[in-house]
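Q: Predict the assembly, please.
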Amino acid sequence: MDDMRMNFDYEHGEKLVEVKDLSMWFPMKYGVTDFITRKEHRFVKAVNNVYLDIYKGENLGLVGESGCGKSTLARSIIRLYKPTGGRIILDGKDITELEGEALRLERPKMQYIFQDPYSSLNPRMSVYETIEEMLLFHKICPEEEVPDRVKEILEMCGLSMEVADRFPGEFSGGQRQRIGIARSLSVNPKLVIADEPVSALDVSIQAQIINLLGDLQRSLNLTILFISHDLRVVKYITHRVAVMYLGGIVELGRTNEVFDHPYHPYTQVLTKAAPLLDPTNRTREYAIEGEPPSPINMPNGCRFNPRCPFCQEICTREVPELREVAPGRHVACHFPLQ
Amino acid sequence: MEKEKLLEVKDLKTYFLLRDETVKAVDGVSFDVYEGETFGLVGESGCGKSQTCRSILKLLKRPGEIVGGEILYKGQDIVKMNKDEIRNIRGKEISIIFQEPMTSLNPVLKIKTQMFEAFHDTKMSKQEKLDKAIELLKLVGIPSPESRIEEYTHQFSGGMRQRAMIACALGARPKLLLADEPTTALDVTIQDQILKLINSLKDELKMSVILVTHDLGVVAQMCDRVAVMYAGIIVEMTDTVTLFSKPRHPYTYALMGSLPDQSKRGSRLEPITGAPPNLSKLPPGCPFAPRCKYVEDICRQERPEIFEIEPGHLTRCHFPEKVRSFTGIIDVPEQEVGNNG
Amino acid sequence: METSNKKFRKRKKQDTFKMMIRNKSFVAGSVIVFIVLLLALFPGAFAKQDPIELNPTAIFAPPGAEHHFGTDNYGRDIYARVIYATRIDLQLGIFGVSIPFVIGTILGLLTGYYGGLLDTIIMRILDVMMAFPFTILMIAIMAVLGSGIKNTYIAIWLTGWMTFCRLVRSETMVAKNSEYVMAAKVAGFSDRRILLRHVLPNVISSAVVYLASDIVMCMLTGASMSFLGLGVQPPTPEWGSILSTGRGFISFAPWITIFPGLFLSITGIGFSLMGDGLTDFLRTKGR
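A: Predicted assembly structure:
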C-alpha cells in the first residue's frame, strides 16, 4: 500500500481508453447577416488533435487553466459531444460514432463526477430516487434488491441510509459531492471522470472527498481521469498527469517527474505560479506575463509562443508535435527544458 | 509595535436578522490593522470573513446589520457614522475589491465612465480625469490603456477586469484596501499576477491591505499578520510565519493537516470530520468542539476566551498545554520567528 | 424490503402537505376556491329560487329578505343567478386553462430542449399572435367562429397556450444546460425520460403559478365575451352577462352589477392567493 501511486506499472499496463487525434470544434453563431455578408464560419477550437491513453487502474490528472479545453476533452471522451474529428476507443471498442441505443449500452462504463455539487443533482429527486433510477434504468440489479444496493453504495461513499429520503437541498456541499460520487459509481463504471470534484469545496471538506476517491479507486480498481486546476491536489492524488494549454496537451508523464522537472515552459510556469505554503519563501517576480489567447483566434505555430519566455522563430511557424522525450514522458515543445 | 494603528475593530457583531432566526455571521471580532501591513482574514466559506470585511465599509446586504462593537478608523467610529460621513470614507480612505469583477463592474458603462466615478467630486477637467484614469490603468498593468479605456467590461478578460476594478478602487489613493477573495475566480497564473500587483501597489501607495481569503497559500505569500476565523469568531491571530510554523489552535492545525501535499503522497489525508456549524444554531461551547480531535467536556459547555499564548500570538482554546505541542508545515528556528513578528 | 421502497416515497408527500398547510396565502386561497367549488357543484343547496324564472311582479326589487341580492329587469332573482353562474364560470376558468396549459407546456419543453426548426416556427407563430392585443384577437376569432360557449372555449384555447409555452421554454433552456441534465445524459437516459423526470419537474413551477392566475384571466375573458354578447347566451346565468344586463340600470339598480362583480373578484382573489402560495412553496421546495 505504501506508495502504490508512484509505482504504477505502465510498461505492462492495459489501455482502457485510447484517444486518437481527437478534435472538438464548436461552431459560432452564424446569423442571417453573416450569411448575407458571406462571412466565414468561425469555430471555437476547444480541443485540437489530442492523443491520450488512459491505463486501467490509474489516476490520470488533467490540468490547465480555465478555457484550456480540459472539460471539453473529458466530455468528448465520454461522448457527451460528438467529436469533430478523431477516434475514441473505450475498452477495445470504438465509441466515436455510436448513437442512440448502442451508445446508451456503453454509458454505464463511463461516468462523470461534476464540479458543482449544488447544480449537478436534480433538486426534485431524493437521494434514493436518484440512485434507484440509475440502477433500474441500466438494470444493474433486480427491482427487489434496489434498497439493499442503494444502502451499500451510500455506505461505500460515507453516507448512511437515513439520508436516502432527503433532497439535495438539505445537504452540505461535501455531502452532495458524496451523493454525486455515489450516483456515478452505482452503475459499476470502468472509467470515472472527476471534473474538478473538490474545487467548489472548503479545504477541510476537500480532504474528505480526496480520501474517499482514493479509497474507492483502490477498493474498486477504478480508472480515474482527474481534472483540476489545483496542482496541490493533482500532485497528491494522481499517478500521471497531462498538462493542457489552449486545446492541446503540452506535456504528459508521471506526476512527480512532470512537476519536479518540467520539460515544457508552460508546466514550469504553472508550478511557479501556484502560491507556496511557506511564508518564508516568497517569490517576487511574475511567473508569467499576459493571459491565454482566445480559442477562436489561435496563434500560429506553438500555441504558447506569445507568452513563452524561450520563444524562437520556429515556434511562431510550426506546431510542435507531442513526442516522447524520455520513457513515458511526452512533451510538445521545440526546445524542451532540461 | 512602532507602527501606528490605522484601523481598530473592537468586538464587532454583525447579525442577519431573519424572520425566525438570527444568523450570527460575525460574533465579536476584534483586530487591529497597522499602517502599511497586509492583514489576512482566513477561513472557510460561511466563517464570517467576508461579512467582517464588508462591515468595515457598512456594505452589508440586507438583512445584515452591525448590532454591536466599534470600527475605529483613524480614531473615528465607522459604525456610528451616517450615510454622508461614510460616503466620505468609501473609496477615498478605504476601498474594496470583490471576488467577481464581472458583477461589481457595470456592464453597460465604459471603463472610462466607471473610473471617472472615483473622482466625481473633485474639480478636475475632463482631460485631467482621463489622464488620471489612464495613469491608473497603466499602474495596474493594463496594456495600451489609451484605447482600452474606451471599452466595456465584457471586452476584458477575467484578469484584466480584476485589474480594472483595482484601478477604480485606487482612484482616490485610499489608505486601506479591502480585498475580498480578489483572486478566487482567477486562474493560478493570473492569480499570481494580481497578488503581486496588489503587493507592489501596496508599497507604492503606502496602503494597508485587509486580504480575505480561504487559500492558505495566498496567506503564506501575501500577509504579514493573519486572523483565522471559524463560525463568526477569530480563533487564532498572529504573524504569518508563526502561524505556519507554530499553529496554536486545533482548527488551524487541522486545516493545515488536511492540505494535500506531495510529501504525503500515498498516505491518507487527515480531514476535519463533519461540517462547519449552522450559524443560527451555534452550540453553547466552543464552536469547533464538534469537529475537534482534542475535545473534552468543558469545550462543549463553555466558550473559551481568546488569550495571548505567546507575545503577539492569540488563540481561543481551553487547553493551552495541548496546543503548545503543535508543529506547523514549515520549520523555523526560534529566534527568527521573534524577529519577524 | 418492498416497504422501504414505499417509505421513501411517502415522506415526500407528507412534507409537501405540511408545507402547504403552513403557507397562509395558500390556505386562504384554497378556502375561497373550495367554497366556490361547493357553489358550483351544488348550487341548488344554496339558492332555492330558479335562476331563469321570470317574475313580472318583482322587477328591480332591491336586496331584501325574499331576494337576497335583489332582482333584475325581468324579475329574476340575482342571488340565484349569481350562484348558478358559478358553475359555468368555473368551468370556463378551469377547462379554458387546462388544455392550453398542457399544450403550452409540451410545446415549451420541446422547443426549449431541442431548439432548431421547430423552435423557430413555433416562436414565429407566437410572435405574430402576441402582436395583437389579446381582447382584439379574441373578438376576431369569435367573429370568425360565431358566438356561443363552445366557440369561447376554442378561442381561449387558441390564445392561451402562448404564455405557458414561453414560460416553460425559457426555463427549459436554462435547465437544459444545467449540470443535473448533463448528469442525466451521462447516465444514458433517453430524451423522454430526461424531459419528463429531470427537466419537467424543475421547469413546471412557474407555469403552475401562472396557471392559477390564468384561471382568473380565463373567467374574466369568458365574462367579457358574454358582456360583449359573444360568449354565453342569455338566459343562461353567467357573471359577465349578468353584469352586462345590469349595466343599463346601474344608476337605480346597482345590485344587479355589484353582486356578480363581487363574486368574480372574490373568486379571482382566491385563485391568485393560491398561486401566490404555490410560488412560495414551490420555490422553497426546490432548495
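The two ends of chain B are 9 Å apart (CA to CA). The longest helix of chain B spans residues 188-205.
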